[in-house]
């Protein structure tokens, strides 16, 4: 079992995400995280899916994703093959702000992105291990809410969408 | 509004005509009524067959597609009309049958409001279609249909569903039909790589006991002749999957029989003795392979396959040859040396003798009083035409009919393979027959399956399709009963049927019917049926508790194929 990032380059049509997630559902594979966004090219979307599974399985998933008619290309990488980031937000009550927390914020390079009379919101961007570490610490500071995005990633391999839509 | 504009419903029908659809199987209802209204004007250009249930319509379209090689077309209304297509879609998806199904949908402004007969058929059918789409605007109808036909028939064929809202059917638009010639996200197939052919050829040339397994891909790729030439040159023994039957004449000297759970003895057993396995247009279904951990482990495997997702899916292969097998087979034939494998072939023949003694003797020339399914099929073989189509349902009769039917021509086998859909045969036979009234279509069906779609006798009556229906009646859900006998201590849980008088039913539909109970009546009854001009219903009462052998039980290896 390993962590893989699957990239899917697709036409921007209704229902495409559904068609892709069905493939995971059928095989009983849990999607760890999924993000979808526009790509550099108009009308083409990219979906980034993070899964923990075997390489055999990820190959079969990618093959079946690529069979979806409106999918232009699907491929996968191990963590070493991608540059990726995740963003995490932490909501902390103001009553818990003290020197200790200030140190934590400095050490982790977190930012305060909102300050309200009752709470502040911290932001940390990085790999899951980093945002997770901060999460564990902030649990000791009365953490009110936590949210983390899926992986936003680009492949290290030098291929572009244009290679696929020729 | 410009004068050249026509209703969306007319665009639907004109698009079907532009795609050279000859026949539509369908059932009307509220949300598809504008299309039915349009059909009234085009009855000279396109035929419509009113089935008695939407499931009947889609299975008929499948039967039509399987024998003709063309796209089957199906029409249904929204809601229950659409959901009744789902079994057929799933069946066509797993058996790679090209279909375009058009469903009506509530008007666009009502979508998502639980309107009358609204169902999310695009959502429901997503896993069971190669592609589907909802069309909400008149201008999108023709492009969707063009794309649908292209997707259904190209590459690895499959079913397509196009859901058209009622407003799009009644609105007016321009009809500028342009057939779809491809689009960027869908690559039909790449040319076969010469290097893979070279590698495969080297392996084949060195092989001492090579073995060819062929499937429906040969039929879908129209590569029957290429397969024959390949075998003529290499002399390699070749066995067929269920859906591959017919791709090679059983009279061919290399033909050694059928694969799978109820296939022939030698082809299964010797899978684990070959040194090079050449799989052509087949997907190593679990019913073919048995236990994968003990499947052909000694062999190097070459897989000629169109769909890259099938490579290494079930069986790890040494040399994948991706591409159209019509192309790859002829390239391979060029590249291999001319050879014979008479010793190896003789091994198949030896084991065939064993099967003849242990199984076939009983099946074809039984000594028991009760008739067997095998002798019925054997009798049919004596009188059938070479290109007669055999349509079967699912269960014991399907396996027996497949085992004993003498396949000589391509596209003579129509059955529900991957999905195992009971109720498939009767409507599929109707569809197969309507493709060509003059071709012999023999529908072999069990007493369980026929009652799932028996209403289609009404469509046979109305169309006068001269289908020859052979009901093999053992008053049981025979295959389930066989499993109960073998694996569940004979606990016959809900498998015995209290059947109606089938002859009366057939006659009520105006179909000539006859019932056979005794061996001495059989030959004449079959002869009468096959020469009869028109639909015919022959019920044969067979032995109640007969079993299908050989058998590879679930979880067993191909080499554990049992003769009893």
TrEMBL record, chain A:
Every ACT domain range: 5-79
**Which reactions appear under catalytic activity for this entry?**
2 pyruvate + H(+) = (2S)-2-acetolactate + CO2
Q: What is its EC number?
A: 2.2.1.6
Single GO term (MF): acetolactate synthase regulator activity
First-level EC class: transferase
Keyword vocabulary terms for this entry: Amino-acid biosynthesis, Branched-chain amino acid biosynthesis, Transferase
Q: What is this protein called?
A: Acetolactate synthase small subunit
Species, as recorded:
Algoriphagus kandeliae
């Amino acid at each position: 079992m390993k962590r893989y990032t699957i990239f899917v380059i697709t036409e921007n049509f209704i229902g495409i995400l559904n068609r892709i997630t069905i493939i995971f559902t059928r095989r009983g594979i849990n999607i760890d995280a999924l993000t979808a966004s526009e790509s550099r090219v108009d009308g083409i979307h990219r979906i980034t899916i993070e899964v923990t599974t075997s390489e055999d399985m990820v190959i079969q998933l990618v093959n079946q994703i690529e069979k979806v008619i409106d999918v232009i290309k699907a491929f996968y990488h191990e963590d070493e093959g991608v540059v990726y980031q995740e963003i995490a937000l932490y909501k902390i009550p103001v009553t818990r702000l003290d020197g200790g927390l200030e140190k934590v914020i400095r050490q982790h390079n977190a930012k305060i992105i909102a300050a309200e009379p009752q709470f502040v919101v911290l932001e940390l961007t990085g790999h899951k291990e980093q945002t997770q570490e901060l999460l564990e610490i902030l649990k000791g500071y009365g953490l009110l809410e936590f949210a983390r995005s899926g992986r936003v990633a680009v492949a290290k391999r030098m291929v572009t969408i244009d290679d696929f839509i020729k | 509004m410009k004068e050249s504009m026509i209703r969306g419903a007319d665009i639907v029908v004109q698009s079907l005509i532009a795609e050279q659809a000859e026949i539509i199987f369908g059932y009307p209802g509220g949300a598809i009524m504008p299309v039915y209204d349009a059909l009234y004007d085009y009855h000279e250009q396109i035929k419509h067959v009113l089935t008695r249930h939407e499931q009947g319509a889609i299975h008929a379209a499948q039967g039509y597609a399987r024998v003709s090689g063309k796209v089957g077309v199906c029409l249904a209304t929204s809601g229950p009309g659409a959901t009744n297509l789902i079994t057929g879609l799933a069946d066509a998806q797993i058996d790679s049958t090209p279909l375009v199904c058009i469903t009506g949908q509530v008007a666009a402004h009502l979508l998502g409001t639980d309107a009358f007969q609204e169902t999310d058929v695009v959502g429901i059918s997503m896993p069971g279609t190669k592609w589907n789409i909802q069309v909400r605007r008149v201008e999108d109808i023709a492009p969707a249909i063009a794309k649908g036909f292209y997707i259904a028939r190209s590459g690895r064929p499959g079913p397509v569903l196009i859901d058209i809202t009622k407003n799009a059917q009644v609105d007016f638009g321009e009809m500028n039909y342009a057939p779809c010639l491809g689009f960027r996200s869908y690559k039909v197939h790449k040319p076969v790589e010469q290097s893979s052919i070279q590698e495969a050829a080297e392996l084949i040339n060195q092989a001492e006991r090579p073995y060819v397994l062929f499937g429906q891909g040969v039929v879908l790729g129209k590569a029957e002749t290429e397969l024959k030439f390949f075998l003529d040159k290499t002399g390699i023994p070749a066995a067929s999957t269920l859906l591959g039957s017919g791709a090679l004449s059983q009279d061919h000297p290399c033909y050694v029989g059928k694969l799978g759970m109820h296939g022939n003895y030698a082809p299964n057993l010797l899978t684990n003795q070959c040194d090079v396995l050449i799989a052509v247009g087949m997907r190593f279904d679990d019913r073919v392979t048995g236990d994968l951990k003990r499947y052909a482990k000694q062999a190097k495997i070459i897989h000629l396959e169109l769909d890259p997702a099938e490579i290494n899916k079930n069986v790890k292969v040494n040399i994948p040859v991706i591409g159209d097998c019509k192309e790859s087979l002829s390239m391979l034939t060029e590249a291999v040396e001319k050879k014979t494998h008479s010793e190896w072939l003789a091994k198949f023949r030896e084991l065939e003798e064993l099967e003849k003694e242990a199984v076939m003797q009983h099946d074809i020339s039984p000594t028991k009083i009760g008739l067997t399914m095998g002798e019925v099929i054997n009798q049919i073989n004596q009188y059938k035409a070479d290109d007669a189509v055999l349509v079967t349902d699912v269960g014991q009769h399907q396996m027996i009919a497949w085992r004993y039917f003498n396949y000589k021509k391509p596209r003579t086998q129509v059955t529900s393979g991957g999905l195992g859909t009971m109720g498939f045969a009767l409507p599929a036979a109707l569809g197969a027959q309507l493709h060509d009234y003059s071709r012999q279509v023999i529908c072999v069906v069990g007493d369980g399956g026929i009652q799932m779609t028996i209403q289609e006798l009404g469509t046979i009556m109305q169309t006068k399709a001269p289908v020859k229906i052979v009901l093999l009646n053992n008053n049981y859900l025979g295959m389930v009963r066989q499993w109960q006998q073998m694996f569940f201590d004979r606990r016959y849980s809900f498998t015995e049927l209290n059947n109606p008088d089938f002859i009366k039913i057939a006659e009520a539909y105006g179909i000539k019917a006859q019932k056979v109970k005794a061996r001495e009546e059989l030959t004449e009854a079959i002869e009468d049926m096959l020469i009869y001009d028109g639909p015919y219903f022959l019920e044969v009462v067979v032995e109640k508790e007969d079993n299908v052998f050989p058998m590879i039980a679930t979880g067993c290896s191909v080499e554990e194929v049992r003769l009893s």
